[in-house]
Design brief:
The chain has 2 domains: 70 residues, Methane Monooxygenase Hydroxylase, Chain G, domain 1; 49 residues, no CATH class. The chain is 50% helix and 8% strand. The chain is built from 4 helices and 2 strands; from the N terminus they run αααβαβ.
Length: 119
């Protein structure tokens, strides 16, 4: 597959997924159909991330987006820390570090998402 074809597949997948979300919002598609389409798009994104090259300057921004999109998401409850960020400082990033595995090599990208509503 040539470099431009991979970009076209990425753009088509983005467009198709946006259409799926639109049809779900209007009741045309049900939740099971939306989930199936999202799983298919994730498989396509994964294959694209394997086939695209960081050496190709047109692939680099897409690979950055795919890295974000394909990152594992962990939903956590940080209500334990609800008063600490206030003392830490306004508009500052509150660092959270693991207690183990700090010396292990990174294998996958992950993002922690806070489910608390302490704000």
């Amino acid at each position: 597959t040539d470099a431009r074809a991979l970009i076209e597949i990425y753009n088509d997948t983005q467009s198709d997924l946006a259409e799926v979300h639109s049809q779900f919002a209007t009741g045309v598609l049900n939740l099971e159909q939306r989930a199936w389409a999202e799983q298919l798009s994730l498989r396509i994104y994964f294959e694209l991330s394997r086939k695209m090259s960081t050496k190709n300057r047109f692939h680099r921004p897409i690979l950055d987006e795919l890295s974000e999109r394909l990152a594992d998401k962990f939903f956590v409850n940080f209500s334990l820390f609800q008063s600490l960020p206030d003392a830490w400082g306004i508009d500052q990033v509150f660092p959270v570090l693991p207690l183990s595995g700090l010396g292990d090599a990174e294998e996958r990208r992950a993002v922690m998402l806070d489910i608390t509503c302490d704000s």
